Task: inverse folding
């Protein structure tokens, strides 16, 4: 191969690589643009004091405790929550993520905690008129090992106050409230 042909081949390869890299970067930039739906997640950023009520059985008196939830944005796409407190008189910690999936046009989330060996995944929607995020998913009941559906409802009452309600599907197919958390944002 002559030097001129080798130079042409090298130049062609470099141009091909540059074009591919430029196309890939343009695609990533298009994907990596936050949507207005991602802005909703920023409402949770901060440290929140939590008053927790858990109903172990329908009709029972709630078990009450306090906790702290710390939320931070991971880039512009995800909120990462760290929850520390007690649950049923036991130390409790959990980690959750919530983001918005533009392809599905749904909010998506995960939850893991110190009392369950199973990953909880969920999907849902945000209603801007009522400032309410409703997500549903399935998780494995740690007591009997069966899959159970749940519904998580988060309401923004004002900039520094929010409420969370967890409902679990009972044997009759009806959702029952099993947890309620009232949050107050700590002022810096």
Result:
């Amino acid at each position: 191969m002559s030097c001129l042909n080798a130079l042409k081949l090298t130049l062609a390869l470099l141009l091909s690589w540059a074009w591919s890299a430029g196309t890939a970067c343009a695609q990533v930039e298009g994907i990596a643009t936050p949507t207005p739906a991602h802005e909703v997640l920023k409402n949770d950023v901060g440290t929140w004091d939590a008053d927790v009520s858990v109903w172990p059985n329908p009709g029972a008196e709630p078990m009450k405790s306090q906790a702290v939830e710390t939320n931070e944005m991971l880039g512009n796409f995800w909120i990462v929550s760290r929850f520390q407190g007690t649950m049923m008189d036991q130390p409790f910690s959990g980690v959750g993520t919530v983001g918005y999936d533009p392809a599905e046009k749904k909010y998506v989330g995960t939850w893991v905690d110190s009392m369950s060996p199973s990953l909880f995944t969920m999907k849902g929607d945000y209603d801007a008129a009522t400032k309410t995020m409703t997500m549903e998913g399935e998780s494995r009941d740690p007591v009997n090992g069966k899959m159970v559906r749940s519904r998580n409802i988060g309401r923004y009452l004002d900039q520094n106050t929010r409420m969370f309600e967890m409902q679990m599907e009972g044997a009759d197919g009806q959702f029952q409230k099993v947890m309620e958390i009232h949050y107050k944002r700590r002022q810096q």
Remarks:
- The CA atoms of residues 87 and 156 lie 23 Å apart.
